[in-house]
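Justification of computing resources. Each target in the renewal requires a structure prediction run like the one illustrated here; the chain below, 224 residues long, is used simply to show the kind of job we budget for.
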Amino acid sequence: MKLLIVEDQNELRNILKKRLNEAGYVLDDAADGETAMDFINFTEYDVIILDIMIPKINGLEILKNIRNKKNATPVLLLTAKDTIEDRVKGLDMGADDYLVKPFAFDELLARIRTLLRRRETEIQSILKLDDLTLNRTLNTVERAGKIVKLSKKEYMLLEYLLLNKDVVVSRERLESVSSNYDYEGYSNVIDVYIRFLRKKIDEGYTNKLIHTVRGFGYVMRLEK
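Resulting structure tokens:
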């Protein structure tokens, strides 16, 4: 799961990054609204943790912008503003939840889990292609009834390819959805992980599911 933290207090942002990484999340972070919008426009997130009082573009303007673009990513407003009016305004503008500073980190984790579960009910939990099955609830993968053990990055890449089956996905997009955005430039790391996936998913099977489209990227589709 990939999260975006938008928080201008450096100490708090760094603590959240460290703790959420330890909890197993992939993270990007921004200290101002302009940077946050750049991330949101080019990257898909599972949850956005958004402070209201941030420089350049405030959190409510960001929220308004992404909802106007029909972006349904769950947004958790994180702010020191604690009046009922502030909460109502944020929720009315499309926020999914609201957490007032200071807060307990365990409560933040619980709120994130709730938003992720809610989103899971809205999207397909079982992804299939031929005899390959990925269960997004249990985080398991099977091919022809046999369990396939994947690393965290392999799983994220396979999940994204299955969500976009029959669509060619660029190496840059695959790197973006499986890594922190502070990765500078693109190497052959995605090619390496695709080789790992092919060995685990396609090796020994007649029907190959992972295909290279030279000059563009990769696609998952059934070719008999």
